[in-house]
């Protein structure tokens, strides 16, 4: 992010007459903060709080769902404030405009953007606080501020002996005014950024002290479970409410928009009562198709509509006509569930004039809209308390679980915790969309001369805009919510950002080809979808990098060298490709019965190349080793980068080997981990991650490990079996 630091520093008068410092930063615009005599606290900006007791609190504007923001973002503050990250206590931000992600104008955590959007702002916040503390101490000592230093929560006198604690200086520091640019530490002086520090939340999570949404307990709280229609779009026609209400512990049985909620004093009593609930469902407007129908519809749409041109260079049609070799392929990927280890849950307490929510959400401001929709309140009357998240992967960007809890609490007037079972979580997920890809390429004298990619499938924004648009305009009355969503879709790419979810990674095709034609045929079968870890990059990565492998073999070239020569003008792509190949000993033979596959993909600004070594063992696919090279710009914490790349690899391998949500007559066929399997520990391959040392601006690492590993595994299996698989999940063929 390119910013003029001087624009961020503003000073105003506080209510007490003291000077207050406001740092107008992206994601924290216009927050008026300062020293508060009644509490002894100083807030140099909306993220940072120092107290007279030497406590330092950091308000974390991005949620922690295992990806490391709790540690990484705190490290940025700590580096400039000259304290160890462990000396800072992070707290989760409330839902407020000050904490919006500047890339989306929404308070959401996603898109692997947390470090990228916070890299300079948080360092400025820490450096500003440090500079004001030094200025205050210098006035006390009657010395030059430039001659003072800061060390471990103290400002040190030029004599190197005397010092003052931060807590002694906060009131005086709040009266200081920074003129001109704040000075950030040079890279050569960093103590924490770029170092392999431990996670700040590790102890709390290991001991059970960390509070997840499912842990919330409130006085007088009751539990609710919701029976939802087995087919999307179904509605309850009637149900045996009186019979269920008479069961032990049952508080109420109420119908809400998404189904019928059973409320009881204990969770298992609610579940037992749910088993006795008999609902007559109206399926007149419900989904009725099966998986085969989805792909038949995609192929029909692709045949009838060439799609909107997303990237066009040269003359692909003319090149194909005259090419001696033309290769065509079709790739298909199924719907995928998120399978977060903590199932969906939320707790709501409606109190007449307000409602308070406790939830593991990736988007607190959308949670406000969700709760307002189903109550008589406005978003301003909704308080969201964000907890730790037991996995997100994009699922918790959609707020249906908050909507359900708020609706039940509104109907009963009690604090209510709604918990989804694993079966409900699988069958009523909002899925990664199933997608179809039609590829065509031309070769002449072994050279790739033309590239065509037709992406066929839906766009996620069509499903997400329902609450996203109102969250951007929270002043709008509720009767306008649906209209705002419709307008947002109509003005997509003009007023609102273009939805790239279907084509990202396809339009970014990096290889040097003179004639390129990339298109998107938009068709939506009506199956609920949302963001899934790495989003469009996940399915486009499989199609692009598998087809590149096919082309290499058609040209009679080594798949690594074939890619490499087409990346001469892409040094960062080429660097990670070379590193991954070296790390995997690409030029050395593999043990008998094994093969290697390579793939490369840039997603969320991060370059990742991977080599997978795999084979067939005891009738099953076995992944032995994954070698990965990653260039994510400046690294804040190498250990977290390695963890996230490895986690993305295992997530992607799970999808490649097992991931498949199927439909029959509109009903999801999978229900739990026995038929929607996750990769087990005994299946885990050896993973080696090499990080490129870079001074470029940092990019994300939560998702980029996913896209390359799926095609790399498929390419490795081709090297073993000689058979190309063009649909997922990958299988052992008889």
Structural class: alpha+beta
**Overall morphology:** globular
Q: Give the overall average pLDDT.
A: 92
Q: Residue ranges: pLDDT <50 for 5 or more in a row? A: 1-34
Q: Could you describe the 3D structure shown?
A:
It is a single chain. The protein is of the alpha+beta class and 734 residues long. 30% of the residues lie in helices and 24% in strands. It has a seven-stranded mixed β-sheet. Strands 3-4-5-6-7 form a five-stranded mixed β-sheet. The protein has a five-stranded mixed β-sheet with strand order 16-24-23-22-17, sandwiched between helices. It is globular and about 80 Å long. It starts with 8 loop residues before the first strand and ends in a 13-residue tail after the last helix.
List the helices and strands and how they pair.
Elements: E1 9-13, E2 19-23, E3 35-36, E4 41-45, E5 48-51, E6 56-60, H1 69-81, E7 88-92, H2 114-141, E8 149-151, E9 154-156, E10 163-165, H3 166-173, H4 202-207, E11 222-227, E12 235-239, H5 241-245, E13 250-256, E14 259-264, H6 267-276, E15 279-282, H7 291-304, E16 308-313, H8 316-322, E17 325-333, E18 345-350, E19 355-359, H9 364-373, E20 382-386, H10 400-412, E21 416-419, H11 422-427, E22 435-444, E23 447-457, H12 461-472, H13 481-490, E24 515-522, H14 535-554, H15 559-565, H16 571-583, E25 594-603, E26 606-617, E27 620-631, H17 638-657, E28 663-664, E29 667-668, E30 686-691, H18 706-721
Parallel strand pairs: 6-7, 11-21, 19-20, 23-24, 27-30
Antiparallel strand pairs: 1-2, 3-4, 4-5, 5-6, 8-9, 9-10, 11-14, 12-15, 13-14, 16-24, 17-22, 18-19, 18-21, 22-23, 25-26, 26-27, 28-29
